Amino acid sequence: MLFSPNSSCFGCVFLPLLLLLLLSATAVFCGSIVRYLPGFDGELPFKLETGFAFSFFGSFTRLAYYCFEVTKARSEVVMMGVLFFRYVRVDEIEIFYYFIESEQNPRIDPIMLWYSGGPGCSALNGLIYEIGPLAFNITAYYGGLPSLEYYPYSWTKTASLLFADVPVGTGFSYTTDPSSWTTSDTTTAQQTYIFLKKWLIDHPQFLQVQLFVGADSYSGITAPMVVQHILDGNNDGDTPRLNLKGYIVGCPRTDAGINENSKIKFLHRMGFISDELYESAKESCGGQYYEADFYTPQCTEDVKLIEKGTHDLDKNNILDPKCTWASPQIDGDTKRRSLEENPGNFLLSPPIIPDFWCHNFNYSLSYIWANDVRVQKALHVREGTLEDWKRCNKSIPYTMDQKSVIGFHHNLSRYGLQVLVYNGDHDLTIPNVGTQEWIELLNITVVNDWRPWLVDGEIAGYTIKYSEHGYRLTYATIKGAGHSPQEYKRRECFEMFHRFISYYPI
Asked: Which pick of 15, 240, 266, 303 has the fewest CB atoms within 10 Å?
């Protein structure tokens, strides 16, 4: 049980603070410009660079351990202090990346590092399905190599995007050291920070522009850790200094207990649970539904009834058909299911019924495209380093060693950062009510009350803004969107991002 009724502390989490001894490290970036891609008609109308970041560090990593306390009433987060330091090695890995320059003014516009959730989901997911300038032409697919089309509502309209396949084993990333395949939340944050720093050293023209870190889904766990790495490196005088301005997390996993407990509250609000059953569960479980087997028999029974009545909902978007006949096989560890799938379960051609659509069908095209040898050659993927590309690699030996990162967010609120947190309002995987709950635990002053935000005069969602001592956090919902919101409402999400990155009110 994550939160014991008799305990007020959810434990200690350790925060790696990297001390990069650059003179004792070697790093080689093999980046190449991509002008043509199989499936796209003509030359790409934007600048795309792909490559591997090879890093072998003979230096060590300094680890600082922090302990954060959540009070029994869960009304505040208190930093309890640095406990001790120790040293560990950083191994040899090759991180694959896609870099797309801003289509406006790359020498002035911000740059954002973006990596997907899972853990183990490829950066190509973000590039093709969420925020990049390319999309598959799904309606025109009837076999063969999928075709690509330019997507106008790309976040590259206003910022440069650096997509990274992290952790190692994700997408096209790999390692020559067998021991480096084993990873965790902590090592993922390490790998991501090291990659970002070395990439910027190799691309010094972007060191002076504003830097943002962006992630979604399960990577909501590691994103604030990466941000803390950057701040600690800057504070320790590491060179070059990174021009960090803020971070963005979409439908972010943040706290295991809050996320799981919020699902029943969300289902009741959306009308999927009767008032009687909800009140019974709330009373018998005390509002703590996470790992309910540890509670009373009545609590266990109520939770089972709720699960039985809502089992056939699409967790990523409760408005969509679940499409059991074309759905992913869920891993036994439900915490890793948000972007994972077994491609063999997907149809490789459009549904027979023309008016019937399954969201999961979209993903099958990425397997066909990314595993084509012509595509891999165009992307400059090293031959022989990968047997089978997966959108989400579930075979990575991964340890989820951070149950909650609320403490990281609380610590980051001491800095003058710009933060955007957003949710689809029909997402059951990471419900918006849970996100709002952990934001409230940060105890930051509300400066702009809850209000609708508009696109073309229509309500696109709702937003609220918090600010304290130069730290500004904007929270936004996207109406009708699921998990991840950009897959459902790309135009609205682009407007949200553009306003935020331009320091306009959403």
From this structure: 240
Burial call 73-104: b when 16+ CB within 10 Å, e when fewer = ebeebeeeeeeeeeeeebbbbbbbbbbbbbbe
Token duo for residue 505: 């009110």
CB 166 within 8 A of CB 188: yes
How far apart, in whole angstroms, are the C-alpha atoms of residue 163 and residue 53?
12
Using the 8-state DSSP alphabet, how is residue 127 labeled? I
Q: What is the reported pLDDT for 90?
A: 33
Mean pLDDT of the chain: 84
Going from the C-alpha of 414 to that of each of 32, 47, 471, 490, the distances in angstroms are 39, 37, 7, 32
Residue 7, CB half-sphere, CA atoms under 13 Å: how many? 8
Per-residue pLDDT band for 332 (boundaries 50, 70, 90) equals very low
Highest mean pLDDT among 6-10, 20-24, 28-32, 255-259: 255-259
Residue 326, classed as helix, strand or coil, is: helix
Q: CA-to-CA distance for 242 and 197, rounded, in angstroms?
A: 8
- Which pLDDT score is estimated for 322? 85
| 492/506 Cα distance (integer angstroms) | 11
| Across 402-413, average pLDDT | 97
Query: Which amino acids are annotated catalytic?
Result: 217, 427, 483
Show the CA angle centred on residue 267, arms to residues 262 and 273, nearest 5°: 130
Rounded distance between C-alpha atoms, residue 77 and residue 72, angstroms? 10
Q: Is the CA virtual torsion 187, 188, 192, 193 positive or negative?
A: negative
**Would you kindly state where each structural domain of the chain is located, as residue ranges?**
12-256+400-433
Options 1.10.510.10, 3.20.20.80, 3.40.50.1820, 3.90.960.10; which CATH number does 12-256+400-433 get?
Answer: 3.40.50.1820
pTM: 0.85
Among 62, 65, 66, smallest CA distance to 89 is for 62
Three-state secondary-structure class, residue 115: strand
Residues in the chain: 506
User: How do strand 60-70 and strand 77-89 relate by DSSP bridges?
Assistant: antiparallel
CA 88 to chain centre: 26
Q: Six-digit token pair at 460? A: 């696109």
pLDDT tens-digit map of 64-76: 434 344 433 343 4
Task: Calculate ∠ Cα 161-254-494, nearest 5°.
Answer: 35
Q: Residue 205's closest CA among 45, 73, 76, 31?
A: 31
DSSP 146: P
